[in-house]
Every structure is written in C-alpha cells, then in structure tokens.
Design a protein that fits this description.
Chain lengths: 199, 199
DNA sequence: GCTTGCCGAAACTGTCGGTTCCGTCAAGTG
DNA sequence: CACTTGACGGAACCGACAGTTTCGGCAAGC
C-alpha cells in the first residue's frame, strides 16, 4: 500500500460531471410527507411518491437505500424544529412547555410517524433508524429531568426512565392506537400529574 | 313479502354436506402464532402460514376474510386467559396484580401484537378489530379503578382515562418501540407509582 | 346414489419494493 | 472545441405478496 493512501484516506477528487439537483431531494421528501398525510396515507408506494414528485424511481433509489430511509429523512427534516428547552422557570413549567411543544410538533407530522412505524415493523433498518430518532428526542427530556433532580425539584430516587416511558408511551399510544389528537390540554395535564406525583 | 319471511328471517336450514374440520382452524391459528414468534416474524405471509399448517390458502380464505383477521383471531384465542381481576385486597394490590398478570400475558404473545399492529397500519379493518380488542381489555381495568374511586381509595377527581393511557401507552411503547421486556418488576413499579401519586 | 359443501393443489391477477438498461443532458476538464 | 463524469427520466423487469379462481376429490347427510 503506498503511503499517500494513508495520507489521503478518501480521495478528495474535486467532483466532475453534472451536480445533484437539490430540488429533487426537496420534492421527494415533500411528496412523501404530503402523500402520507392524505387519504390512504398508510399505504403510500414508491411509485406514487416518484410520480407526485415528478421524479423517476431510479433517481430516488440513487439517493436513498429504501422506502423507510425516505420516510425517516422526511420525518427528521420536518421534526427538527428544535423544540428548544427554555429552562427558565421551575421544572414544572419547563416540563409543561416541553410537552406542549413536543405534542404540537408531533401532531403536525403524525402521519409521518405512523408511516415510518408501518415501515419499521417490516424493515429492521428502518426500525433502527426510528429508534435512534426516538432516543435522540428522549435525550432532551432526560437532560431537563436530571437537571430538575440536581436542583432538588425532584427527589433523587425518582425513576426518570419510567417517567419518560409514561410520557412517550402515551404519545405513541395516541398516535398509533386510539388516533386521538395530542392536544395542548393533554400535555399540560400529563406534565402536572407526573411532576406533582414525583415531587 | 310473505309473512313467513319475517317469521324466519334467516333460513335455519339444518346444514347438510361435509362438516368443517376443526383441526384446520386450530392448525392455522397455531401456525400463524408460531411463525410470528419465530425469526422474520414481522414478515409472515399467508403462503407460509398455509404451508406450515398443512392447509391450502383457499381454505384459509374460506373462513377468514383477510390476513389481519387471522392474526386478530390468533391473538384473541391466545390472550383470552381471563386475567381475572381478584378484587380481594385494596385497590393498590388489585391494580398491581392486574398489571403483573396483564404484562405477563401480553409478553407471551408479544409477536402477535406486533404482527397485528403491522397489519393494522395497512388495513383499516384490522385496525378496527384491534381497537375493539384493546377497548375490551381497557374495560377491565376501568372497572377496577372506578370501584376504587367509589370505595374512596382514589379521589373522585382522578383522571382514570389518563391513568389508563399511561399504563397501556407504556405497554405498547415497550412492545413496539424499545422492544424491552414487560417484566413483573416494571408492572409493580408502574402500579405503585400511579396509585401513590393519585391517592 | 345423490346433493351439499369442505378441502387441497395450483394457476392466476394486481400491486409493490427494488433493480437494471438505455438514452439524454448538464457540468466541469483538456 | 471534444471528452469524461455523473445526474436524471422512462420503462421494462424481477420476486414476493395478498387475495381470487378453477378444478377435482372426498366426506356427511338425504
């Protein structure tokens, strides 16, 4: 092996040829999300996405390895609105506002969650991607709660994981089973019940 | 319309011809449940079920309208072990034993729940059947909790629906997302946390 | 023996996820 | 300018699957 391979492990060739059209990416993700939100949203095919995006299926598979990957990226794209954690007031109000913001954001992309779940139940790759997404989301809430414990607003023996299971469990339960909306009222009620019981 | 039609709205013809073989029904439901529990359980086909049961696909579709119906019936068959509610002790112990029994029963048919969920996300008929099943299960717990309110063991303003959402939400969350087992320890911990916080 | 109806075998339809081939066109290089 | 690289559309194609249909045989009752 020549030494310059080690010096340049990935060939930094400056890229020639036609460039990727960014409009294609946007159109595919947008069409996927829109179709999922429409009627028959739970049975959206790649052909339908390609047709709605005005793109050939061949192009989609050039940039995404599977249908699940498209749905996951569409979800990540729409859900990364940063639901920033204020952490200004007390733990009770912080958690409350976090849940309100989360439920509101999730509710707007609920069809994407359902579609990705349907895919995750058939494709282990999609399942893994979804689990990573969920875990990342969970990390934000965990930080909030551990901070609450450190501040003495929650007793140190509080089972934070159980609390998060109750929160996200209820969220998915509404999304997948009952199909009832994740209202602000529900978020407030849940947050108050959990914090009051633990403190 | 002759009056005897109203008298006998459905012809009560005594059934002639060859009778249904009950072994077929059992074999199909058993094969469906077993295949779901095996590797690749989330992508079980009707052909595979028919082959494993030693039965032709034609026969399956004679008795069940769809794949979702087969899975639903297999689940109902295996889950109707009556998880009887003792209601002997206090509410706290009753709920605790109810959750322990429920988690144990559900854990043993977890693959069926996942398979049915996958089907419910594509077939609205299957989704409706699953919702009915879930609602029936929920009714048992609701009776237990309302009885607790009547006995003064829970304050009357307790939001029982929210409490049940937290319980079944957590259950489905573990089943579908995290894939972590529903242990007896978890059931006890959840029951105590919920009852203690409400009382 | 005759009808009714259960059952298996197998071919078939339509749909879907994913792949492959071909032709075209855009962007950079000499 | 010609030439190479690589993005893109169109369309055919493959294998798997849910669900249907056809045929032929077999068991239960009349």
């Amino acid at each position: 092996m020549p030494s310059d391979v080690a010096r340049e492990p990935v060939a930094p060739r400056p890229h020639t040829g036609r460039r990727r059209n960014p409009a294609v990416r946007e159109a595919v993700l947008k069409s996927a999300a829109d179709l999922l939100a429409g009627p028959d949203g739970l049975t959206v095919s790649m052909d339908a996405i390609a047709q709605a995006a005005g793109v050939s299926k061949h192009t989609i598979y050039r940039w995404w390895p599977s249908k699940g990957a498209v749905l996951l990226e569409a979800l990540v794209e729409r859900a990364q609105q940063e639901t920033s954690i204020p952490r200004t007031g007390t733990l009770a109000t912080d958690v409350e506002s976090f849940l309100v913001a989360t439920f509101d954001a999730v509710e707007r992309v609920a069809p994407l969650f359902r579609g990705l779940m349907a895919e995750a139940l058939r494709d282990s790759k999609a399942a893994e991607g979804m689990r990573e997404f969920v875990a990342a989301r969970r990390q934000g809430l965990r930080a909030l709660l551990t901070h609450g414990v450190e501040q003495g607003e929650l007793p140190p023996e509080t089972d934070l994981e159980l609390m998060m299971d109750q929160i996200y469990g209820l969220m998915w339960y509404h999304l997948l089973i009952t199909h009832t909306p994740l209202t602000e009222e529900l978020a407030v009620h849940l947050a108050r019940t959990l914090i009051r019981s633990a403190a």
